[in-house]
Design goal:
- The complex is a heterodimer.
- By secondary structure, chain A is of the alpha/beta class.
- Helices cover 29% and strands 22% of the residues of chain A.
- Chain A has helices spanning 64-70, 94-102, 121-131, 137-150, 167-179, 197-214, 225-231, 249-254, 259-267, 307-311; strands spanning 15-28, 33-48, 53-57, 79-84, 87-88, 104-107, 185-189, 217-222, 234-239, 242-248, 317-318, 334-335.
- The longest helix of chain A has 18 residues, at 197-214.
- Chain B has a domain at 130-202.
- Helix content of chain B is 30%, strand content 23%.
- Classes of the chains: A alpha/beta, B alpha/beta.
Amino acid sequence: MQPMTEPAAPPPPLLDVRDLRKHYPVRGGLFATQQATVKAVDGVSLRVRPGETLGLVGESGCGKSTLGRTIPRLEDPTAGEVYFAGRNLAEARGRELFALRRQIQIIFQDPYASLNPRMTVGEIVREPLAVHRRGRRADQQRRVAELLELVGLSADVSDRYPHEFSGGQRQRVGIARALTLEPKLIIADEPVSALDVSVQSQVLNLLVELQERLGLTYLFISHDLSVVEYLSDTIAVMYLGKIMEIGPARAVFEAPAHPYTRALIEAIPEPDPRRRVRHAPVRGETPSPINPPSGCVFHTRCPYAVEACRGVVPPLEAVDPARRGQADADDLHRAACIRKDEI
Amino acid sequence: MFQGHSLKTAAGRHVSMTRFGAPMPRRDPPLPLLEVQDLEVTFATDAGPLRAVDGVSFAVDRNRTLGLVGESGCGKSVSALAVLRLIPNPPGRITAGRVLWKERDLLRLPARQLPAIRGAEIAMIFQDPMTSLNPVFTIEQQLGEVLRIRFGQGRRQARARAREMLATVGIADPDRRLQNYPHELSGGMKQRIMIAMALLAEPDLLIADEPTTALDVTIQAQILALIRELQQRTGMAMVLITHDLGVVAGVCDEVAVMYAGRIVEHAPSAAIFENSQHPYTRGLLASIPRKGRRKESRLATIEGVVPSLLEPPPGCRFAERCPRRRELPEADQRRCRQVDPELLPVAGTPNAAACHYPCSGERR
């Protein structure tokens, strides 16, 4: 037996994504031959410890949603591994995949589109139990009532249809459905983006509360940095399929090392007229993912770019030079920029 | 200069004849560029008439930007559409009010005179650029049309001007873009083209309805900087409609906060963000996760839902959800529920609030 005084080793990550790639062929021409490849996710590695939140931010087309769909195998990866509770999801098949997926649930952005309008709220929340043949009908209905109350709705709404609810209430239904099978990992893809601010804060509070009560692990995908900062323990910033910067939320926000992260943070319009953004922090738009820039994919818009940035793909390495060797530590603040030590 | 919120009566005005023949009151100081008075817009629904905008008044002058903010359904977009008489009828109808534009009431102007104002003196841009761009014409054809109608310019002249404007709004390779159709352009580019189209007409007033909501933050920052720069250069007035209080803080000189069809607070921008008087404004501001906020402290929320506008409550429309009301003595709470509060100045502040018990200070 281990002596009690021994410092506890950090728990192994619940989710461990290694060099994940998802490439899509672009077809065209007379015989629909492959013309090009879109590297929607291009070599992403990240880890999420149990009970924590990893916030994945980036602008449209950066590949964050594709990553969110490839992790639970809604899309088959082109290459790479996804270890969930120690098992490789990327290779799992049949029953094993079915069982693993039960522990990973997704909450979508649009509570209007992701709930079947012909099903009652009770049926929507009960459906996963029926699919996975959990318990008898009476038990299932008891569970549905429990879940609806857990997300702040009352059990007697279960006979009503989605259109009778407001956006915030529908998102609560979506959350209840995601919790039905007692998942360990929730992938939330822009869950509050369609909601008004006062409702958004209610749903964010609910997500934090559920995490504390149920020990949930979140992969929280959003374009909204303030929301991500609020919720996350770790933050990963994506741009054109790659992670530009990853690290503890506080470190990334207070001392962003990558010029793209800095630009994103500066561009947030703050509700404070004394802190107006005077100038746009970066010029131009995200280049096409079909033909991404050479070297560092951000160099075409980067205010700090030098000649070398066109040629070298910068490695994602520790921001603190003293820790460059420990590539595997979970709390490491890393950035993919050759000039991160000078700027 | 901040425009007053209490609208003066006709007392003290003298009447003169305008160019359009209608007798119009005139007063000193002169009317602002746009003055909306007691606007009311009603929609016919299966459940009866719904008053989406209920007695809204605001004004905006040259070089000034007014923000109209609020959550979905508060009436901010409908108010803006009503200014240009763009409310779809049926089901909607402007049921009361005046829209004074350069001393003429747009609501009473003969319909044939509207095109000379819409898109010319007053331009409007929307959240979704495809509502304003025609998919079957090239960018050059669409920009050229504005210049032909507004200034009678010929093709060559219009083309040069359009190219110049595309460069101004930050579009690289304008010659190529002029030949493109809308579907060939990215969202950010279409939004820039829409802004270019609105500005080509050199409007006196730009009404922008959520112009950056669909864009990425880095592009949003570019567009907002562009709008500010163009405003400085041309002195146009602007009404910016948005749900994003960050955008408001970045652009607006003054802000009108709407709730359930009414303006509940109106103040200079700094006073809204630093010393808001209406509990709804405070609630909204507290709900936003700001830089540095962490999940260890919960966000403020506004419990409950917006009342139905089919049967609005007799008193304050926010009373049911108001955290401030709950702290008041019983008699005062009754007043909140039964007596409709007017939008009045709050003593000691530059704010006007529609609240019987504003957050700090007394009602004047």
